[in-house]
């Protein structure tokens, strides 16, 4: 589609905004990861996406896609044309076959609220603001991973707008190679407008935990986590969060959930109660409140940047070094955190590598190193500071863990854009050659190059 911006406005049902227009909104969870887009198109139907892509290509404008706006890198930002999926949030439920057809802009909390009406759940992000599109296409794990596996492994179909503007279906019967690529290769192949995902029976309430400990208790906390992991069930998940509390003091905090009754949850986490936390927030909560538990942290102002790490050794010496490095970081970025995520990995590891593009199926513990700051003078140094934290966090682990980029949705995306495919090769490993062939087929001009950009095969 060629023509003027005025023509584009007339042709779509959604909105088209330029800087200065009412409705022009660059807001993301992290202001650090925004760019001043020349045009923001907010589609309301799939045809709008097709027209936006054709217009961008006719004008030579780079493209980016924003889902929930929860990412901390510039992968969902551009100075060209930004497709903002915030209005693409419809959810349809096929109860008989337990399939959800969910538009890519729908966020975790909205999905929880809708699906629990049917006694069902999908694999969604731990944070309420995370959209299912980017979350699933990058792999997608969280509290339900132990029971149901990756969100990408639960995706059975997708409606995709290709670089040509063509709208296609991807499933086991239509374009199965494209479905394979979408299971982990992010936005490299088009704009996913709607996902078909497996739904699972879900009880109406779950047991949520929060234990706050003194820094002096860190040794027993680490030891207890290691003992607890030996008995961890698939429906149980915890995080160890190293952060400043709301009172400004440093604490190791255990957060998590058991998809169970209160009695079962209390029994599962009794060992952490026995340590004598200084503060406890545990309760049986409605399932549709799970992703809202971290909302107070999401509302903390300031720039934000995350870098992922993988570890396969979790002991006091390693955690203490991480604590010391974090203690230096918070002098410049006080609201920063290190988050160790202990989600059962058996389901992920059991899926054959050839099932999808996602290649991170080793049984690592995922760690998110998150910087949050308000002092603009720190901005030029934040990435280097976080990469140093990452080296410390994984420093005691195996060579494979140290060399890992970390979980793909947490990885250091500032080195993954169009300039090099080094990170893409590393992330997708043995799946990369096939992805290159599919890139040549579906996006040979690299229109979609904002997330671990894959080079087309020669």
Task: Characterise this structure.
The protein is an alpha+beta fold and 458 residues long. Helix content is 28%, strand content 23%. It is built from 16 helices and 19 strands. Strands 12, 13, 14, 15, 16, 17, 18 and 19 form an eight-stranded antiparallel sheet that branches. A hairpin with a 5-residue loop joins β13 (236-244) and β14. α11 (316-329) runs antiparallel to α13 (382-394). The model has no long low-confidence stretch (mean pLDDT 93). Residues 32-202 form the FAD-binding PCMH-type domain. It comes from Tulasnella calospora MUT 4182. This is FAD-binding PCMH-type domain-containing protein. InterPro entries: BBE (IPR012951), FAD-bd_PCMH (IPR016166), FAD-bd_PCMH-like_sf (IPR036318), FAD-bd_PCMH_sub1 (IPR016167), FAD-bd_PCMH_sub2 (IPR016169), FAD-linked_Oxidoreductase (IPR050416), Oxid_FAD_bind_N (IPR006094).
Short description:
With 458 residues, this protein is α+β, with helices and mostly antiparallel strands. The protein has helices at 5-11, 46-59, 108-115, 132-137, 145-148, 176-182, 218-229, 262-268, 270-273, 295-298, 316-329, 346-350, 382-394, 399-403, 422-428, 432-442; strands at 15-17, 39-42, 63-66, 81-84, 91-94, 99-103, 120-121, 155-161, 167-171, 191-198, 200-201, 205-212, 236-244, 250-258, 279-280, 283-286, 303-311, 337-342, 365-373.
Task: Record the SSE blueprint.
Layout: H1 5-11, E1 15-17, E2 39-42, H2 46-59, E3 63-66, E4 81-84, E5 91-94, E6 99-103, H3 108-115, E7 120-121, H4 132-137, H5 145-148, E8 155-161, E9 167-171, H6 176-182, E10 191-198, E11 200-201, E12 205-212, H7 218-229, E13 236-244, E14 250-258, H8 262-268, H9 270-273, E15 279-280, E16 283-286, H10 295-298, E17 303-311, H11 316-329, E18 337-342, H12 346-350, E19 365-373, H13 382-394, H14 399-403, H15 422-428, H16 432-442
Helix pairs in contact: 11-13
């Amino acid at each position: 589609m060629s023509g003027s911006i005025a023509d584009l406005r007339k042709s779509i049902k959604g909105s088209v905004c330029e800087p200065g227009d009412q409705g022009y909104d660059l807001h993301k969870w992290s202001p650090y990861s925004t760019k001043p887009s020349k045009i923001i198109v907010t589609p309301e139907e799939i045809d709008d996406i097709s027209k936006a892509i054709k217009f961008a290509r006719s004008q030579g404008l780079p493209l980016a896609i924003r889902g929930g706006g929860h990412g901390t890198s510039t992968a969902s930002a551009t100075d060209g044309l930004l497709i903002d999926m915030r209005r693409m949030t419809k959810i349809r439920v096929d109860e008989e076959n337990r399939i959800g057809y969910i538009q890519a802009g729908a966020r975790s909390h909205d999905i929880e609220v809708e699906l629990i009406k049917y006694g069902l759940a999908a694999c969604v992000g731990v944070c309420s603001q995370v959209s299912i599109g980017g979350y699933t296409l990058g792999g997608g794990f969280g509290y339900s991973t132990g029971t149901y596996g990756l969100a990408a492994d639960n995706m059975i179909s997708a409606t995709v707008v290709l670089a040509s503007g063509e709208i296609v279906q991807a499933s086991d019967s239509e374009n199965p190679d494209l479905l394979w690529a979408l299971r982990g290769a992010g936005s490299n192949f088009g704009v996913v407008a709607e996902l078909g995902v497996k739904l699972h029976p879900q009880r109406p309430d779950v047991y949520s935990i929060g234990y706050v400990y003194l820094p002096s208790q860190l040794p027993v906390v680490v030891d207890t986590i290691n003992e607890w992991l030996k008995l961890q069930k698939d429906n149980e998940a915890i995080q160890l969060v190293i952060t400043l509390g709301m009172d400004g003091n440093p604490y190791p905090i255990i957060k998590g959930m058991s998809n169970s009754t209160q009695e079962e949850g209390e029994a599962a986490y009794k060992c952490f109660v026995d340590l004598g936390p200084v503060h406890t927030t545990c309760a049986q909560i409605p399932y549709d409140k799970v992703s809202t538990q971290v909302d107070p942290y999401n509302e903390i102002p300031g720039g934000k940047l995350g870098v992922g790490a993988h570890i396969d050794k979790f002991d006091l010496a390693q955690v203490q070094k991480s604590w010391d490095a974090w203690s230096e970081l918070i002098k410049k970025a006080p609201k920063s955190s290190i988050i160790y995520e202990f989600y059962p990995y058996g389901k992920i590891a059991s899926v054959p590598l050839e099932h999808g593009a996602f290649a991170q199926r080793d049984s690592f513990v995922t760690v998110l190193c998150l910087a949050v700051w308000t002092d603009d003078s720190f901005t030029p140094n934040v990435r280097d500071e976080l990469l140093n934290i990452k080296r410390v966090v994984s420093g005691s682990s195996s060579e494979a863990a140290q060399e890992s980029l970390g979980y793909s949705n947490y990885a250091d995306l500032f080195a993954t854009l169009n300039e090099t495919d080094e990170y893409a090769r590393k992330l997708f490993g043995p799946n990369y050659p096939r992805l290159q062939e599919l890139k040549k087929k579906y996006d040979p001009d690299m229109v979609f190059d904002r997330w671990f950009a894959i080079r087309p095969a020669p």
